[in-house]
Fold Peptidase S1 domain-containing protein.
Amino acid sequence: MWGVLSVLSVLMFTYTLSVGLSCSGKFQCVSSTQCISRSALCDGVQDCSQGEDELNCVRVSGRHSILQLSRGGVWRSVCWQNWNPSLGLSSNSDLTPGGRPWPRQVLSALKPTAKCGIRPGLRSRIVRGNMSVSGQFPWQASLQYQSQYICGGSVITKQWIVTAAHCVYGFASPSLWSVRVGISEQPVSGAGDLAVAKVLYHAAYHPERVQYDIALVRLAQPLTFSGQVQPICLPNYGQDFRPGSVCWVSGWGATQSGGEVSSSLQSATVPLLSARQCARHGLSSWSVCAGYLKGGSDTCQGDSGSPLACEDSVWKLVGVASWSQGCGGRNNPGIYTSIIQALPWIQQNMEVRQDPVARLWADPSIIISWEWLPRLTG
């Protein structure tokens, strides 16, 4: 998994993209090193320089997509019983439940503009086999460093790719990175490579630890979605994917331990393992384990950053390939970074950088108006 990347790390000067500070019990602004009290979150007052403390105030939680609002760092579900249109026309609708004027500026665009987790380019269902066909995983991305394949990634919006922090750690210059999408075969030339505008990884990530192995790559120009290129949905906050659920991994990694990376996109099914089974390997809640404890299909060298995708009416990104001991060995499942744990970090970085199509839930029918919020929370 560390093959090509470890060679490059010897040749390149390493430095971090951001400084990890201790904000224990507090909220750390993404745009600065400032730490603020959690009671100041979602209070209508912009404490961070770019307003991050007022961005993450609405979310969709759990398998049933429950709408929740945050106040003072506490998430509460919105009640909807006995609603009718007249409730939205109160004369004091400009006031919050506490009687203060409600801020009039738009804080976030919450109306989804596109679907995710669909495969319009796949006409037949793949039942067996390791070699993937065009359109089977339209969210799969290939990350190139100086025109050389390094890691996989997942398309989540028209301009954002999710990958692993260890793929980009120490290689911060966006001009040296490029991305390929909509392919199942790695081209010999760099034709079709997409320029990268920004590379970000979690400030708390360190190569000697397995936590926080998450990164974002922002493309210089937005993608055009098609049958071969589609975003994968991110899971809802707190959504539970049951152990034993069969999911898919895909990537251009080696087909055997110590082998060369593949020129063809490979894929395999793997069952999710329980948190208890993960804990046996000394892992935290930031990790998801998947694979066969008796040995079998697994990620391998070169699959780092690639998606662990599970189908839940639509396809959702459950994990990002992080590491494993060997490839498919007995009692050595694949280890993936938990996207559910990484959601707050993903959301903060995408919203602060003003991506208008950032969306963190799967249901395209959810439309939220900020004008509703005083009534919803009252």
Notes: The radius of gyration is 21 Å. The chain has five helices and 17 strands. Residues 248 and 269 are 5 Å apart (CA to CA).
